[in-house]
Structure formats: C-alpha cells, structure tokens
C-alpha cells in the first residue's frame, strides 16, 4: 500500500495530562439547556387592570384582569416560576475511563519535507468517504504522513 512509503511517526501520550474521566462508562450526557423564568403581574394601564405574563422579561400575554381590584401597589407580582431544561446527548461509544492529550511531536511531510508539529496538521474532507486528518500545513497535500497514536495499554510496555 502507498501508506508504507510515507514518513511514519509515533505520537506519545502526555502522561502529565492523564486523568480519570468523571463521565467514564456513560453513554448519555446531560447538558443544561435554557433557563426560563415565567412571571405574572397585575398592572394598571388607562384605568384598566391587566394580567401580564412574561417569559425571561419578554411580555408574551396580556389579559384583562377580572378579579377584585388589588389594593396593593402595582405592578403586583402574582407568580414566578423558574425552570431549566436538561437536554440529553447520546454518545455512539461510552465515555472512556481516562482522558489525556498527546505530546506535540515534530513530524515531517512526505511531499515537501518540511517539519512541523503534528498538532499543526490540517484536516479536510470532500464527503463522508473522502477525508484526511493529515493534511500538510505547508504544501497542503493530503495524507502527508503516517501517525501512530500511542494507546493507553502500551504505556508500560514501551519506554
Ligand atoms: Zn508538505
């Protein structure tokens, strides 16, 4: 295969960055959605009483107030409800046990021979089947090198 001729580099895990994932094993995460504050007031306008409903301080409804004339000063707060939506995010794979980052590693493009850090590589795609995660940031050729990312189970074996 053509990939065998390409420059190959091993990208090591930064052990300093290794930490336990607080969401390990979970397949669904919950993120906080919007906070909604609904409040109702009685107000007086042009000698008429109205019940105003506001959501997040924006008036969404105004109805004529039909109860007894309020004796308290206006606007009179009738109710206030605070609700927050929680949205589930479903993951294709369960969350890994550990989180970590990789050590930025000097690599070399197989086409233009320029050197740069692997973190500078670009990614690009045309469609779901045609993409690259190793586009040279200098000459912009696709698949400019072969990267092997260290896996957690290899940490003790090598080095
Ligand atoms: Zn290049």
The Rg value, from CA coordinates, equals 30 Å
Bound small molecules, by name, code or SMILES, are:
zinc ion
Q: What count of domains describes the coordinates?
A: 2
- Our estimate of the beta-strand percent is over 45%
Question: Which spans have pLDDT < 50 for at least 5 consecutive residues?
Answer: none
Give me the count of strands. 12
Number of helices: 0
On the 0-100 scale, what is the average pLDDT?
88
Q: Largest sheet, order of strands side by side?
A: 5-4-3-6
- The helical percent reads under 10%
In N-to-C order, the SSE pattern is: EEEEEEEEEEEE
Q: Major sheet: size, sense and barrel closure?
A: 4 strands, antiparallel
Q: What general form does the structure show? A: elongated
For the termini, the CA-CA separation is: 29 Å
Q: Structural class of the secondary structure composition?
A: mainly beta
